[in-house]
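Re-run with default settings, no changes from the original entry. Doing this only to confirm the output is reproducible before filing.
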Amino acid sequence: MSEPAFGGTIGRTIANSKPWWPAPPQPPKGAPNILIVLFDDVGFSDFGCYGSPIRTPAIDALAAQGLRYSGFHTTAMCSTTRAALLTGRNHHSVGVGCLANFDSGYPGYRGKIAREAGTLAEMLRAHAYRNYMVGKWHVTPLTESGATGPFDGWPLGRGFDRFYGFLDAETDQYAPELVLDNTHVPPPGSYADGYHLTEDLVDQAIRFIADHGADRPELPWLTWLALGACHAPHQAPREIIESYDPVFAQGWDAEREQRLARQKAMGLVPETTDLPPRNDGVKAWETHSDDERRVFTRLQSAFAGMLDHADQHLARLLAFLDKTGQRDNTLVIVMSDNGASQEGGPLGFVNAMGPFNFKPEPIAEKLARIDDIGGPDTHSNFPHGWAMASNTPLRRYKQNTHGGGIRDPFILSWPRAIAARGEVRHQFVHACDLVPTLLDLIGIAPPATIAGVPQMPLEGVSFAASITDAAAPSKPAAQYFEMFGHRGLWHDGWKAVAFHPSGTPFDNDKWELFHLAQDFSETHDLAAAEPERLAALVKLWWEQAEAHQVLPLDDRFGPRFAENAARFHGARTRFTFHAGMGHVPTDVAPDVRSRDYLIEAHVEIDEGTSGVLIAHGDATSGYSLYVKDGRLVHDLNIGGRHEIVRSTRPVPAGAHRLGLRVERLRRESEPAKGARTGMSQYTLLIDGEEAGALTTQLAFHTLISWSGLDIGHDRGSPVSDYAAPFAFTGRLSHVTVMMQTEQSLDNESVGNAEMARQ
């Protein structure tokens, strides 16, 4: 017998030994691919297969191939539902009791998923899944969304292998704030060349899956596609939007009745379901003027057009799965993160950015801009009446724990494994039940530890049995709800719920009682008839609240946002931005709201130099300091109204400091000496010397923009009258922003503006 190739004892040892490295993980036999499509702010009745006239044939086809659930429940807000969907636990339990936009310091309200609560992606990674995240994340504190992170709460830090999308609650669909893996990147197109974020996200989802198939086709994948649709701003191709005007010209009262009739015919709701009265503050359609009805119809058409457009692109993704032979063993789930949004207010908005900075948007102005709705310089949202119709037949809206806020569409299709076709399931299901169900269907157990961190138990309950058995019982455990002090509890088919007016004592809240099996729409309050049952459910709510880190209750809007901003920025009043740096998200950019500040750009100018020095925001709101036609220019854009000041003299060639000083003016005369006048002065500076000024009542009172800041160019939707990116053609060294420490914010207004962002 010949010696091994290496010869001698060492050679024999190597030849006879087993590899020292661990075997790679193997997927469970027959493990499906998983495609989760998460819509944003889409109400219970908005898909065609849930009663809507909106065209959603791709979604409807999935429902026809699989199952629709009538009892799927969320948490009433986006960050919180995503935390529950990702982890299989209740949102307070994992530290996301409210929004990723702030950290209250209490364990249930950190705005970031705890390491003890592993995500679905982290759980599947140990079983050879490759995990791809596309679209909206919004479970990372936005103060951690800058270029330095930390990245442990971003998708790649929570189990996903690739990420393409946005970290915030919303973004402009034509000029989005995009991240690729851990880096902010500019959008690959613009409105002018036909770009839309939905199409881009679907393109990236297809690319990730195609790359996966080219590299490791034997391994299963998870693709989490979280669309911006249909969160405001409602933006879609104009021809799609206008096609819906005749559909919705009848108004929201007739629309609700027709949707409920379709839902009964589909078997989604019992025949005995009553249509509840209009939500508080919503007027009868016929009481509005002709002008109001025209505007309201177009605002609803923009919402419908955005959903229609998204369905068209979802069809492309599903066609790709068919073409590549993957559809049969791909488990597809389509759902929404909460009910339709009330943030459009009673009259809706063409551009919400103005009203949030105290610039009114009267109906006449809305009507004059009706053909702009859904376009690149609008931030539109529909009025309460249409949000109410979206949630048919349920009461109230997103943010609330009545059905309109927490009961949502849910479709499940898996051709290889689900024999049922087009059936409806009526079991109670909660967002935290999704992970246990998927693990159950795949055949794996949740891990005891992830990356050395012991894991808290799953709190959701698998509803896999209901897939094959329409008569399977709902989960035995009680399920609580809480959002901004609104409370609710489901148990054994009964629901106790309390609407909480912000700023009032919690003890004053009126609890209602509904038997959902007989009262789908929560219309018949049985609190007076069954006080003992209600008392028991309320007591159980408090027990659940204590067990899941819900306490202390906090109904504040503005103060929480303001406290978070103050805590993050601290005493910092000076920012320095050097040429060549990347994009700065708005939550980590200088907070110049309601304060005096100074901007200085250190540049070298040649003859003919032009371009942006600093720009924060987009076409709907923001500010820009730039050089054009030889002059220094500042544009204060408040809701599309431009207050522009140009330098009184040209900027000469050479090295200069080009700046802007902003001062909130005070009265000099007694008795109100030192009091604010409500006016601000914007003064241009060339090498420290005044070069033009403007006085105006407009200012950034509550927000600057939900789009971020750039140096040396304006990368997206342009703040001012120039074509983006309008890059600076001179030599820019750096820009400094220096702010006065005094800042006076209207917390209530800040809260209203921020809530429209969620």
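The longest strand covers residues 654-666. Residues 433 and 460 are 4 Å apart (CA to CA).
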